[in-house]
Amino acid sequence: xxxxxxxxxxxxxxxxxxxxxxxxxxxxxxxxxxxxxxxxxxxxxxxxxxxxxxxxxxxxxxxxxxxxxxxxxxxxxxxxxxxxxxxxxxxxxxxxxxxxxxxxxxxxxxxxxxxxxxxxxxxxxxxxxxxxxxxxxxxxxxxxxxxxxxxxxxxxxxxxxxxxxxxxxxxxxx
Length: 174
What we know:
Largest sheet: none
Helix content: over 70%
Strand content: under 5%
Radius of gyration: 18 Å
Shape: elongated
Structural class: mainly alpha
Number of domains: 1
Order of helices and strands: HHHHHH
Number of strands: 0
């Protein structure tokens, strides 16, 4: 049975490995955004669920709801862990929020090109949303802003997680 200092050292090492893996995954995702990855399946399921959650609020919010929910769910993890005082888990969760925003940025950037395959072959959410707002010609600019926000979240999240590696998860408020 490891002693308390050994357990703390093992936890810190495991956390460093997790930060390194999340950082590598994030950098790979940024470098090759067209490649489909494991987390894309998670984001897609949440995105599609968001359409159902927002369906009672009309056509526009139903279309937007998929993207909103795709950001809301990981943001809830960030907020929950932060509120509980688990900084490490909150910062790691911000990695998920960041990669989800990159995923969303790719979808927004496709609003005019319409090249991405859609679930069920339905209407492209962002082509509809941006056309309805009269912003379709700004799809790449909006996508770039969402991607940039994700990059900032990613950098802050990985830096924060690294700084919180030695935090004791048993000493936070519930």
